[in-house]
Amino acid sequence: MSLLIYMNPFRLFREYVRTPIEVFVAKQYLGYKKKTDEGINSARALLYKVGVISIFLSAILWISVFMYVVFYYTYMPNVTHVRPVHLQFKSCDENMGVCSFLSAHVQLTRRSHMLMPAQPYRVKVILEMPESQINKDLGMFMVCAQMRAKGGVLVSSSCRSAMLRHRSRLHQVMRTFAFSPFLLSGVNEEKQLLQVELFSDFEDDQSLPVTDAYVEVQSRHAQVYSCELHIQAHFAGLRYFMFNWPKLSALIGISTNLFFVTLIFILSWYHLQDGLPDFVKV
């Protein structure tokens, strides 16, 4: 009887086939589950680290860009200031014509200052004058300007000579014939633009910043269409490099800021790492 029980195929199948398979499958499942849990935990920790590092890198990059932009707009002045000049004169009481020099007051700014101290500027007066016979016969005339601070305090003054460019009779006839369609249609005009540079290296005084300019054309017979005052910054050194090569200077500036900001972040990271969570530590 015991032999029959011992040789029972169901018992043999249960003890030597099903049970070993169940044990093997259970061990494989538990091992796989353990590895999966460990992988999930390590992936989660890796994800946290990648997230923290990405946030730090983004913050460092944007801080570097912001620092360069702030430095650029603080260090670099406006390149050109253009102000219209409305020339005025005194009419003659008895005869027709102009009985005074052409002059104008130009308000550069309503604030305390417009120009950057210690920055050289070129100050020009642009005269748009017709090629009339009166202007041709006028010859040379003087153009003067005074740079004044608030309250009318004189800071600097300058006078320069100017005249229309000479054109011979043959040149004038040929030019008129060549440009006749444009002259008749009004696209082109018989006029010249005179650029009179009054200051070639003007620097604003920080104690007396310039706020107004006075322009005078010292001729009663000059005929002028319009007039403008141009103040152009004359860059040198670092400003010259930043103005003429803005992309290269931005790349160098942002890279330099990135290096120093990264160094500060790394030193701060290792200094404060003991107080950080374990999954954040490198």
From TrEMBL:
Transmembrane segments: 46-73, 248-272
Biological process (GO), any one: lipid metabolic process
Principal localisation: endoplasmic reticulum
The organism's place on the tree of life at top rank: Eukaryota
Localization terms from the record: Endoplasmic reticulum membrane
Signal peptide range in chain numbering: none
Record's keyword annotation contains Endoplasmic reticulum: yes
Any Gene Ontology CC annotation: endoplasmic reticulum membrane
Bilayer disposition of the protein: Multi-pass membrane protein
Keywords, ordered alphabetically: Endoplasmic reticulum, Lipid metabolism, Membrane, Transmembrane, Transmembrane helix
Coiled-coil parts of chain: none
Matches recorded under CDD domains: Seipin_BSCL2_like
PANTHER family: BERNARDINELLI-SEIP CONGENITAL LIPODYSTROPHY 2 HOMOLOG BSCL2 PROTEIN (PTHR21212), SEIPIN (PTHR21212:SF0)
Protein name (record): Seipin
Organism name: Diatraea saccharalis
